[in-house]
Design a protein that fits this description.
The first copy, chain A, is α/β, with parallel strands linked by helices and 373 residues long. The first copy, chain A, has three domains: 137 residues, Rossmann fold (3-Layer(aba) Sandwich), CATH 3.40.50; 155 residues, Rossmann fold; 51 residues, SH3 type barrels (Roll), CATH 2.30.30. Chain A has twelve helices and 13 strands. Chain A has a five-stranded parallel beta sheet with strand order 7-6-5-8-9. The longest helix of chain A has 19 residues. Chain A is globular. Chain A starts with 14 loop residues before the first helix and ends with a strand. Chains in contact: A-B, A-C, B-C. Chains A and C meet through β2 and α4 of A and α3 and α12 of C.
C-alpha cells in the first residue's frame, strides 16, 4: 500500500508534481464531464477550526464537482475542540468518517500534529500565519494559465510583505522556476523579512525593493496585491499617510503593461478599487475559479485517482521523526502561536537547519531556536 | 444566450410566470420521481448572512430533491464578510462555485447590489425588512392548492401590518388577481402603511380596517396571521392590553367559515395557540411543504430547466441602470439599513417614481427621497 | 402503514432489535458496496440545538455512506429557536424537508416532545444529561466485535459515575444480558447513584464499588473510562488530590488482562494518556468507526429498509399518552432542565412508577415526584 500523502506546505510537492496538478486542472477545465463522477462514494471532511468562507467553499465545490460528498464544520464553536479535545484526536476520529480531510486551524503547525495520527490524507487549508499551500497552487495555476509559463517573469509583490504568508509561499514556489525576478513594494514597516531575501539570494534570483507602487508598475508581468491592516502600523498617522499609495486604482494601472495580470488572494477590502474589476488585467476573481480547479486536481492526486508524478518527497509534515538523527526533543518552542503550546502531550521537536550558526527550527511552526555555544 | 434571471422581488415575476411556477410545483408533488435527478451535477449555494433555519433548509431540501447538491454558510460569522469583504465580492466569487445562489442578508437591497456582478442566478431569500419573494410564492401556492384559485377571495391580514414585509408582499402579489378583498386587522400602532393602501386603491381592490380579530373572522376565506413583537408597541401596558386579542385560539376560530384557511409565515411564538394545530383549517405547517415545492419549481425555472413562461420582465433587480434616463446618482440614500451605507464604492442610485410630487426611490432599498421644488 | 418508530432511549429497543442492528452493522462492514446506494433520494436532517462534532459527523457520514444526503444545523444560533420557536414546531416543519431526523437538544425530554408531532422517525442524539442511545448502541457494537459476546463480562466503569449518562445507559443496556458484573470505580463525590444500583440489584447483577483504578483493573474484561470534570468536586484540593488516580496511563494498564478493552465515549481531555493510544487494548478510536456502522444500521431500520426484528416495544417516547390510565397531568415538573420548563403549551405529564412509595416520574425528563400520603 502507498504511504499516505499529505499537503502541509507547498514545498512538500516537487516541481514535477506541481506541473502534474496544473495539467490536471487544465484538463478538468477542458473536460469537466470526464471528472464529474470520479469521486463517487468518496467523502471530503472540511474541518475549519476558524472560519474562511472562500477556502472552505472552494474545497467543497471541488469535491462536489468530482461527484463526491462533503461533511465538516465551519468554525470551532461547533466542534468538540471547545470541550478540550486535541486536534490529533479530532482528526483521528474524522478519519473514520471521511476519505480525505481539508483543515484550517489558527495554530501554526496544527496540521503537522494532525498528520501524525491520521489514516487519510490531510490538506492544510491554512494554519495561522504559517502555510496555506492551496492558495499558492491557485496562484501558480492562474499565472500558468494567464501568462503561459511559470519562468522568466517579473513579479511585483505589494502591500504587507512582512506578515503576508501568501507572498512568502509564492516566493518559495517561484524560486524553483528559472529567471523569476521580484519587485518588493511595501512601506518600511512591512518590508519583506530578511530570511525570505536570503532564500532569494541563495536561489540566485534578482530582486529589488521599492516603496512606491507607481514607480514599480511599468516593469511588472504580475502584480500581486495584498491587504495592509491598519493595526500593523506603528502609528495611525503613518497608516493614513501611506495607505492610499498601496491602493490600486485605474489611474495607477495606466502605465502597466497591457498583458500584466493583477492577482490578490482575496478577500479584498479596499486595496483594489472596485473600478479596476472591469479591467481585463484584473484576474483576482478568475483566481477563485482556478482555486476550485487546482483543488479538484489535488484531491484526485492525494486519493491516488490520477497517476503519480516523479516520486514526490512530499507527505513530509506527517512524519517529523523520519530524520530522527537531526531531531532534538529537549528544546521547548517559545512561539505562543505554535500548536505545541496547546496540544496535550505533544512532544516538542526541533531540527537543525543551520549547523554553523547553531540554528534549530520547530518542526511544527518553524520557530527559531539559536543554540548558545 | 439567455440573460441571467434573478428573483429579487415578487413583482419581478409576471402573473404568467407565477402561474407556471404553481403548475410546476403541483406537477412536482404529483410526480416526484420525474424530477429527482433533473439537477444532477448542479450546485445551489445558500449564503445566509443572517440565520434563518426554515428558509435555508427549505431551499436545501428543494435542491436535494431535484438531485442537485448544496454548499454555503448559515451565518455571517462563518463568512468572509467578517473580514470586511463586500457582498458583491462574496457573490461574485461564489458564482465560480455554484450554479445558482439563494442569499439572505440583513441589509435592504443587498441582493440587488449582488446581482450586478454575478454570473449565476440570484434568489433573494430575504433582505432585512425589505423583500422575501419566495415566502410570497409559498403563500400563493398554498392558497392555490387549498382554495383552488387566487382570485375572488377575502383575505384577512392580522397582526403587525406596519413592519410585516410578508403581508406587504402578499398584497402586492394578490392585487394582480381579480376581486381580492382585504380585511386589515391590527392594533392602532401597527396599522397597514398608507402607501400600501394607496396601492390597493390604485388597483381598485376593496379593503376594510378593523381592530378586532373576532369581528373580522366570519367573512374571511383566508386568515393570514403574523407575529406581534412587544418592542413595536409604544408602551408595555398597551402591549399587555392588546396582545391576547391577536392570539388565535379554538374559541376565536369558532365563527370562521368551515373552509377558511389559516396561514402564518412561521416561526410562530404564541400568536396561534398550539390547540389550533389540530384544526383542519390550520395550514401553516402545510405551507412549509408548499415552500419546498415552489422553491423546487423556482430553481428549475431560473436554471432554464423548464420552458419559459410569457416573457417575464423579471431579473429587474440585477440591472438598475436599464432605464438610465430616469436614474439619478446625486442623491444619497438616508436609510441606515440600506446596503449603500456599508458596501464599498457602491454608487447611490435613485429612480423617479412620482413625477408630480417629486418622489424618488432608492433602487436598492426603495427608500424615499422627496425633491424640494 | 407501520407506526413511525423513533429512538429516544436505549430501552425503546428490544434485545432482538439490538442484535439485529449489530448484525446489520457487521454486514455493512463486511459488504459496504451492498449498502452504498440504499438510501438514494433519502434525506437525513441533523438538528443540533447544541454542538457535538463527533456525533453529528458520525450521523452525516452514516447517511452519506448509505447513498443519502444530509441537511441541518450544527448549533442553535443558526436555528429559528433563537426567534422563540418551539422544538415541536421546528421538528414538524423539518419533517417536510427530511425522511428522518437526528436531533440533539440541551433540554431533557426534548425529543419526546418533538416526537409527538413529527411525521418522520426521530433519533435522539442526546438530550442534555438524559439519554444518548446511539452512544450506547456504539458501545454495544464495539464490545460485541471485540469480545465476541455481550454476556458473561466484567465491566469496569471509571470516573464520573454520578452524572455520566453514558455509563447509566450502558448499565441499562447490559443488564439485559446474562452474567454481566460491574466494577464501579469513582471518587466518593461521583459515585454511582442509588437508583442505578437498585436496578442492578433488581436484575440480579453482581457489582462492587471501589475507589482505586489500580486495584480494580486486573479483573476487568472491559474498562469504560469517562471524563471527570473539575467543577463536579467539592473542593479544588480534593480534585487535585484525586485526579491522577483516574488517569489511565501505560503504567496503570500493566496488570490488566491482555484482552481487556479500553473504551471511552470521547472527547477525551487528559483522562487517558496519549501514550495509551498505541496499546492494542485501546479501542476508543475504533469505537468511533463502530459508531458510524451502528448508525447506518439504525437509519436503515427506522426507514424500514431492513426487515423488522421481533415486535419492538419501541417508539415509546413518541406517545406518552398510550397508558393514559396511569398518567397524571396535575403535577408540575420541578426539573429546571426539563423541556416542559421552556416549551410553549406543553402539558406536564407524570406516570406512576412505584405505587407503594407513591413515586411518579415526568414522562419527558424522568424527574421524580413523590406523592405525600
Amino acid at each position: 500500500m502507498d504511504k499516505i500523502r499529505n499537503l502541509i506546505n507547498i514545498t512538500d510537492l516537487t516541481v514535477e508534481e506541481i506541473n502534474l496538478l496544473i495539467e490536471t486542472a487544465d484538463d478538468i477545465e477542458a473536460n469537466p464531464e470526464k471528472y464529474r463522477d470520479v469521486c463517487a462514494h468518496k467523502k471530503l471532511a472540511t474541518l475549519f477550526f476558524e472560519p474562511s468562507t472562500r477556502t472552505r467553499l472552494s474545497f467543497e465545490a471541488a469535491m462536489l464537482e468530482l461527484g463526491g460528498s462533503v461533511l465538516g464544520f465551519s468554525d470551532a464553536g461547533s466542534s468538540s475542540s471547545t470541550k478540550g479535545e486535541s486536534v490529533r484526536d479530532t482528526i483521528r476520529i474524522v478519519g473514520n468518517y471521511a476519505d480525505i480531510i481539508a483543515m484550517r486551524h489558527p495554530r501554526e503547525g496544527a496540521p503537522i500534529a494532525a498528520a501524525q495520527k491520521t489514516v487519510v490524507p490531510i490538506i492544510n487549508a491554512g494554519d495561522g500565519g504559517h502555510f496555506h499551500p492551496t492558495q499558492t497552487l491557485t496562484d501558480l495555476l492562474t499565472i500558468s494559465r494567464k501568462k503561459g509559463r511559470l519562468d522568466d517573469l517579473t513579479v511585483g509583490l505589494c502591500g504587507d510583505l512582512k506578515f503576508g504568508r501568501t507572498v512568502h509561499s509564492l516566493v518559495d514556489a517561484m524560486l524553483r522556476y528559472e529567471n523569476v525576478r521580484f519587485v518588493l513594494i511595501s512601506p518600511d514597516e512591512l518590508k519583506m523579512p530578511e530570511y525570505v531575501k536570503d532564500k532569494m539570494n541563495a536561489a540566485g534570483a534578482k530582486w529589488t525593493e521599492v516603496e512606491g507602487l507607481e514607480e514599480a508598475i511599468p516593469d511588472l508581468d504580475i502584480l500581486y496585491m495584498t491587504r495592509i491592516q491598519k493595526e500593523r502600523f506603528d502609528s495611525a498617522e503613518e497608516y493614513e499617510r501611506l495607505k492610499d499609495s498601496y491602493v490600486l486604482d485605474t489611474e495607477k494601472l495606466k502605465p502597466a503593461k497591457s498583458d500584466m495580470i493583477v492577482l490578490h488572494p482575496l478577500p479584498r477590502v479596499n486595496e483594489i478599487s472596485v473600478e479596476v474589476d472591469d479591467d481585463p488585467r484584473a484576474c483576482y476573481f478568475y483566481q477563485a475559479l482556478c482555486g476550485k480547479h487546482i483543488r479538484m486536481a489535488l484531491i484526485l492526486y492525494l486519493l491516488n485517482l490520477i497517476p503519480k508524478a516523479g516520486a514526490g518527497s512530499a507527505s513530509g509534515g506527517g512524519s517529523p521523526e523520519t530524520n530522527a538523527a537531526v531531531l532534538r526533543d529537549d528544546i521547548c518552542c517559545a512561539n505562543p502561536k505554535c500548536i505545541t503550546s496547546t496540544e496535550q502531550e505533544l512532544k516538542h521537536l526541533f531540527r537543525l537547519t543551520d549547523e554553523k550558526r547553531g540554528i534549530y527550527r520547530c518542526v511544527y511552526c518553524d520557530g527559531e531556536h539559536v543554540e548558545e555555544k
